[in-house]
Amino acid sequence: MPGLNKIGIDGDALRKPLSGVGQYIYNLCCELDTLLPNTEFFIYTRLSAEEVAIPASRWHLRNESNGLARKLPSFLWMKTFGLALAKKDNLDVFWAGRTIHPGLSAAKEVVITVHDLNHKLVPETMQLATRLSHKLWFDKDVKNATKVFTNSQGTSNRLQEWVGRGADLVIHPGVSANFHPLDEASQASATAALAPLGISAPYLLAVSTLEPRKNMSVLIDAFVQLKHQGAIAQHQLVLVGARGWQNNELAEKIEANKQFGIVLPGYVADELIPSIYAMADILIMPSKYEGFGMPVVEARAVKTPVIISDVAELIEASAGEATIIKAEVDALQQAILAVLDTPEANLPIQTRPANWHDSAQILTTGLVTTTFDRE
Length: 375
Prior knowledge:
Elements: E1 6-10, H1 20-35, E2 40-45, E3 60-63, H2 74-88, E4 91-96, E5 107-114, H3 118-121, H4 128-144, E6 147-150, H5 153-163, E7 169-170, H6 184-194, E8 203-207, H7 216-228, E9 236-240, H8 248-256, E10 262-263, H9 273-279, E11 282-285, H10 294-301, E12 306-309, H11 312-318, E13 323-325, H12 329-341, H13 356-374
Parallel strand pairs: 1-2, 1-4, 2-3, 4-5, 5-6, 6-7, 8-9, 8-11, 9-10, 11-12, 12-13
């Protein structure tokens, strides 16, 4: 495509296992590979090839060969060694999928995606290096980027409020085709596939990194209290996600209450994730704050009821198809019982959420118009 011959991206976003942001970037990149067959793609990262989820074999990996440089904090490396590597490739566009970009000299145009404003709203929940990097560079990089994309209108609104610049485009996460309701035969297969992970229906589900912003302590307290009341005697609580950070107290609480049916399955293969959603009685997200809420969209796609905290971005992700609560133990207990009592009244029934191809087409439009505007 004229004017869009070379695109570079921040490869640390593709670190395995993929985080929520990583899933967002990876799935969009896979679609970009199809939508832009004549474009060269370059990945810049401190990481080895084995540590990176590369979207397609034709993508060029530009990774760090210096052992000492590989130990630098991610964003500091990107702004120094990553910038030097990018400048050699004469890029048309650099897409900074984690917001902080290497510098305007990295490409003819630099576009960024903002996923959340954790460092402004809940800084205490972040890892130190990430918090410091955002304090140093976030505002400036948002203001000087050629274009700004966000994953939700809520994030765009907060960005306008806090930094004075909203999104040029909102690009919602998509849902892969393998997220769909299960028929009876598929449910039997899913039951057998999930058993080795210690997961058996009925169960409540949370999909998130175990870190303070996710507010898992409220969910565990609500679950354990319902167990003591004998209200959900047969249910497990399945917590899918990375172990996270700043969570020693949470880990102790989980360990102390495992006898009530709390299951941490550890690493879960991607092909099993849709089944975990589809077999759950409820997906629960009691987060203090989210930039969007991909698990909400994925649960909607498989027709699993959803309970969320009253965070604007989660409400946006739910599209009116969730039970919304204050993230408090009593409110969550009541919501769980209400949904379990009348599950058919809480099933997501509206149109299927957007797929990744649709979202990537919006991204492609943003990238192409960036280069055309320049020309």
